[in-house]
Amino acid sequence: MQYSIGVEYALHCLVYLIDIPEDSSTGIKELSSFQGISDTYLSKIFTKLSKAGIVSSVPGVKGGYRLAKSPDEISFWDVIKAVEGPKPIFQCKNIKDNGYLYKENCCSAPSSCTINIVMLAAEEKMRDFLRSKTLAWLNEELDVVLPKQMREETRKYFSKSDI
């Protein structure tokens, strides 16, 4: 199981949007430059985040993006679902139906796949955990684990109005 790097870029960029003034926005060029990635790639991620209602776009020359909700209302799972889509990680192919006993009509009782049930239950537990972690939590955690100067420089970078 692996989520794309787009999820990581999305979470990083979203946490940068927390501290910008409410009447302001941050452009894709600023965010992509700070991350060292192409603005085309990041724009595709932000299109998905916008469709999911996580960010809202601000049109115009000084336009960009801002959070569409409070950081405590945006969970890691919301971001993952927006970037990766909602389908389950485990895709049951009902391979039991191709087994010897089914082919020989020895066993025809339909049954739920126990493997699928277990995998889906495990995914639900993971989603519950990811739902419990929000952008507000991440922002507070970064204040603890990152050097204060790094956090201040990051905030300063995104508070510039003429980047």
From TrEMBL:
It holds the Pfam family Rrf2. Signal peptide: none annotated. InterPro entries: TR_Rrf2-type_CS, Tscrpt_reg_Rrf2, WH-like_DNA-bd_sf, WH_DNA-bd_sf. It comes from the Bacteria. PANTHER family: RRF2 FAMILY PROTEIN, WINGED HELIX-TURN-HELIX TRANSCRIPTIONAL REGULATOR, RRF2 FAMILY. This is Rrf2 family transcriptional regulator. The lineage of its organism: Bacteria, Bacillati, Bacillota, Bacilli, Bacillales.
